[in-house]
Amino acid sequence: MLGWSINLFRIFGIQLAVHASFFLLLVYWGYEGWQEGGLPGMAWSVGLIVLFFVCVILHELGHSLAARRYGIKVPRILLLPIGGMAEFDRIPRKPAHELVITIAGPAVNFLLVALLLPLVWRGLFAPEDRSYYSVSGLLDQLWYANLIMGVFNLVPVFPMDGGRIFRALLATKLPYLRATWWAVMVGRVLAVLFIGWAVYRDNLMLAVLFVFIFYAGNAEYQVALRKEQEEAYWREMARQAIPVQPEDPRGGNLRKIPCLRPAKATFRPFARALSSVGRAPQWH
Ligand SMILES: [Zn+2]
């Protein structure tokens, strides 16, 4: 399903793409706007949603440009109706790197909040003075949207930004895999609470978003687990194989090491599972 995307253009060398379902969102918002305010209402609503997603792109660029400082490649930023995702070639293992990359996203939103503040200042205190379908009304909405985007992403539900910050902080004290497990578990409990709240408030979009996040957190834990097992396997291989070679002029003793063959057999499922992951790690 994620294959149904359309490449737009490159920005800082990163391919920007939109998922086909994004256009359904534009049609839906356009129709809602038209019903409420005719043609100006439609133009205003579509304009707002486009500008909102420009802010989403800027948020993802914050993550992406920070990641590139640490040598991580970012081939694509994909826009979905539920938000954006930057695709990385790997997830940084150093907590300090993960912290900087993660904070860079919401920091862009808070920067936009600060930059827009002089333009919306009057409207915040006297909203009745402003017409909704106007440029100033649009800026008001955009200011709120950035404030909400920045705060919402800091909720510690892994793999949302807040969850990643939580994992990175835990990883400074705990082993990486253990830290990930705790971040996923705390995130799952919070995600269930948010799903319940969203259903109660009749906000189906938010409920779907948290169902998605609930599964995404565990998927990333599984990838981290497999990587850990793979590394443990190679460490064991290296430990067993290296001391043998210098004392073995005939080169034949390697086959007699009892652990090698069963270990090789157990490695195959990991390799298969790793190749089945397929998709690149993603930052939201
Ligand atoms: Zn983010």
Outline the biggest β-sheet. Answer: 5 strands, mixed
Bound molecules: zinc ion
Number of domains: 2
Instruction: Tell me, rounded to a whole number, the average pLDDT.
Output: 81
Number of helices: 7
Query: Considering DSSP H and I runs of 4 or more, what fraction of the residues is helical?
Result: 55-70%
- Give me the side-by-side strand order of the main sheet: 1-2-3-4-5
Q: Which runs of at least 5 residues are low in confidence (pLDDT < 50)?
A: 251-278
Please report which band the strand proportion falls in: under 5%, 5-15%, 15-25%, 25-35%, 35-45% or over 45%: 5-15%
What does the radius of gyration come to? Answer: 24 Å
Ends apart, CA distance between termini: 18 Å
Oligomer: single chain
Task: Decide which structural class fits the backbone.
Answer: alpha+beta
Features:
single chain; 284 residues; alpha+beta; 2 domains; binds zinc ion
What does this structure look like?
The protein is 67% helix and 9% strand. The longest helix has 49 residues. Helix 2 runs antiparallel to helix 4. The chain has a 5-stranded mixed beta sheet. Strand 1 and strand 2 form a beta hairpin. The chain has 284 residues and is α+β, with helices and mostly antiparallel strands. About 10% of the residues have low confidence. Bound molecules: zinc ion. Zinc ion (ZN) binds next to helix 1.
